[in-house]
Design goal:
The protein is of the alpha+beta class and about 150 residues long. The chain is built from three helices and six strands. Strands 1, 2, 3, 4, 5 and 6 form a six-stranded antiparallel β-sheet that branches. The longest helix has 29 residues, at about 5-30. The model has no long low-confidence stretch (mean pLDDT about 85).
Length: about 150
């Protein structure tokens, strides 16, 4: 197997992975609309920024979130706002989300009835799904024809 073909297979695998993960997140986001709702309260909501030892930002801003909710007399802890990632590209957007979920805020928590420890605050699609689908479609549409081409 030559290097070009191996390179193509790696990118095709990346694209397929992105499509599968994005679709899984989309399915979970839509299923969450039908999950039961519990009353909850935000405990921690803070913005974290990751930097290198030279103070260079290596990742966009991320939201650290903890909330408590009760299911069948059990107090559970959740961390997800949505099915997407907890890091944002825009400082304005992450600050709006943090303000909406400030510590002490009462929230409606959706939890998976089959696994009540799995929860989120906002059901539906997140930008992450579209990002993963975009990466998946681009990488597979570019590499698939290259791999099928005869020498």
């Amino acid at each position: 197997m030559n290097g070009r073909r191996l390179f193509g297979l790696v990118f095709l695998g990346l694209g397929m992975w992105a499509l599968v993960v994005g679709t899984g997140k989309a399915i979970e986001g839509f299923r969450a609309y039908s999950w039961p709702v519990a009353k909850g309260r935000i405990i921690i909501s803070r913005i974290k920024e990751f930097r290198t030892s030279h103070k260079i930002r290596v990742a966009r801003l991320c939201l650290e979130m903890d909330y408590l909710y009760m299911v069948e007399d059990k107090i559970l802890e959740g961390h997800r706002v949505s099915v997407g990632w907890d890091c944002f590209g825009s400082e304005t957007r992450i600050k709006r989300v943090q303000e909406r979920y400030a510590p002490g805020t009462a929230v409606q928590v959706r939890y998976d009835p089959m696994n009540p420890k799995r929860s989120l605050l906002e059901p539906g699609l997140d930008w992450t799904v579209f990002f993963l689908w975009g990466i998946g479609l681009i990488t597979t549409s570019v590499t698939w024809p290259l791999l099928r081409r005869k020498k």
